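User: For documentation purposes, I need each entry recorded in a consistent format: the amino acid sequence on its own, followed directly by the corresponding structure tokens. There are two entries in this batch. Please keep commentary to a minimum and don't merge the entries.

Assistant: Recorded as requested. Entry 1:
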Amino acid sequence: MYHPPSKRKQLLQRIAVYSLMSITVVGLVTVLVFLMLGYRFNRADGSIEQGGLLQFDTEPDGANVTIDGTSFGTRTPSKTTMTAGQHFVTMERDGYKKWQKSIDLAAGSVLWLNYARLIPTDLSPQSTADFAAVTDALASPDDKWMAIKEDASTPVIRVADLAREDAKINDIAIPENAFTKPAEGKTQKFAFSSWDPTGRYLLVQHTYDETQIEWIVIDAEGSDPARNITTSLDVAAVSPMFSNRDSNILYAIVDGSLRRIDLGATTLSGPLVENVASFDLYDRATLTYVTNVDPKTKQRSVGYFDEGASKPRTVRTYNEESGPLQFTIDKYFGDHYVAIVHGQTMEIFEGELPRSDVSDPSSLKTVATLSLPEGADYLSIKTNGRFIVAQKGASYTVYDLELKKMTTTKLKGTTAVQGELEWIDGYTVWSDQDSTARLYEFDGANQHDIMPVVPGMDVTLSPSDKYLYGISSSADGKFHLSRVQLIK
């Protein structure tokens, strides 16, 4: 005869079931957490070890991923956890060249391989426009426009709309009242300096009477009249540069001092920083600078000035004998980083940077001290603060703040490199060595020859990333705005 269990026995049964369920849930959550942290069972020695997470993506996507010779089984974008250590990754797609790289995966880390740009196996340059000559070409920062100078002596600027499939050319003529005519028997030359950050306004350098220089701002959309900075303010500006937040505001060195130019109000500020050799812009309201040698102390300094502050702030001071001096600052994931090249040494610091006119200490701590045997002519920070780039001629050194790793790449080719290297995106450098547009990843990997180009002219992606544009020449002496289709 059946006897129902007592209340005490029912309670014990419930406690046992609930306890088992709780233990199971905790166990499963613990296992999942360990899996998310990259822990795996090593069948070879029976141990539990922590790996890392690999994230893959390509442009275009849909590429097969192979790791250490074994197909991963899915197409980009994708991800997987792997054991810590060295791995060899390959990503490939039909119609494109293979992308491959040896990587070092740290335990518990996330490594993003989301920057792989796949290059088509068939690279056939096509001309979209022909010119009798090209003396200058400069792409806008948003990749929408390519300004082209066909004849340096005339005030006509040809602007290609790279957002259009046909890259339509529009002509902009600088009005005669916006520039100074050369004297009888003298020459003149128009050359591009820079675009403003919005990609609408173009700064043009006009050289006349052999040595006289004036600066003119042109509206690529043709709505605003051309403005001559030099004649409207009656100043000899050196290295003018657009502000990052207002296209009516520029900065320039005037009489040895860094000053602010307001085109809207037609005003020139007093000296922001004195005895300036060079300067650059960081974020929307901060300028960095390097001074000339002080004749009394025989020292130079690097520092920054915040817009609206009452004075600049010196970050470091060096003796005249320290050699070339470069300085830059940026933010990476909310932390300030400072990079300084003096002579053959690059120092990288991390810490808070107070407003330039307050007395609070900056609390900079050394992140790395690196040797640059040849020094550096250029220093910059790229890709939202991740890469610190020092360049000397045809060599560039990149310190990766994410991986704490330094790489040095020597550009392929024999011709001299003129000026600072440009990037077509946050991970890819281009050069025109030996009249060839050649792409390099930030660490020198996956190099590709794309198409013949005229050295000294700009190379850029279209806004859609579908085409790479550049200026080429042909055997008949004509010049062309050419492009290669990168996304099929």
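Entry 2:
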Amino acid sequence: MLRYALLLFAGLTFSTGLLAAPDGARLYERHCSACHGLHGEGGVGIPLALPSFQSAVDDHFLFTTIRHGRPGRVMPSFKTLSDAQVRAIISHIRTFAPQSEKTVPALHKPAHGDPGRGKKLFTKYCAHCHGAKGEGGHGTGVTFSRPRDLPVMPPALNNTGFLAAASDEMIKRTLMDGREGTPMISFLKVGLNEQDIDDIVSYVRSFEKSPIEWKYAPDIEPELTMESPYDVQTTVENIKRAAIGKNFRIIRIQNLENGLFDEDKEDPNQVIVYFCNFNFINQALSIDPRVGLFMPCRVTVVKRDDGTVEVMSINPRYMSRMYNNAELKESCNKMYDIYESILEEATL
């Protein structure tokens, strides 16, 4: 009986993964590869397989980056992963590096520089790529939205996630050595000395006093809903008129159940109005191609069983929260105002 119980326990723990070590390759493929490439070749995210990246960052940097992400910069935080799972992902990332690059020393020696002088040097040598206030490069890094002169998107240095992950020594080492395979050059080769670089690092560290923060607006509903005093057909015509008045083109109008049932069995009291402003969409897509998931614009009109007619759309501000892209926030706020205006005009 004891032997049977032990075997049963061993089987249960094996099947539930209680004793099994986390599979770093599988975790990486699931959580990281879509942005960083299956083999760390990069894409939306930076190429993790670059030897110059692998040799410049320690495991603390990788761990903290995975745990906290980069608020407002597409890289999400993976707070639901256990410490063991994060370490397993890091171990897998290290397999991308050549054997000679696998051992990375801890990089925690603080810099001793003049941040005031460092600001002037930063403005001259760093701001072109990293932004005047360290806000980082533009776009997500996806091929068609990435500025063609920057094969890797310059990170946001004035970011709570970066500042928590990057040590002074790591930043200093990157400035001194550069990062081969990216636009990041060695600033020793352009005439700066070690004290100059310490000054720049001290200035970057001073961003911690006023970092750029990305805060989610609380209690945002995923959809906008208004009640219409008109019947379905009149409400649909009102939406069309309101959308055209906002410089949108009507693409099509179809029953919500289109394609799900035979045409004669579709409910005529559930209708979707599709409309588009191609200039606005192109601008939003250039910031973040994931906007395409809720394009073209659409408003749904539904007659409830009690006779109430409701008009609904997605809430772009809610979508903005999901994308973790501060650059997209302005476009989502603009789209929210457009949706709200169209719904209000159609239901007056």
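Summary note for entry 2:
Confidence is low (pLDDT under 50) at residues 6-10, 12-17.
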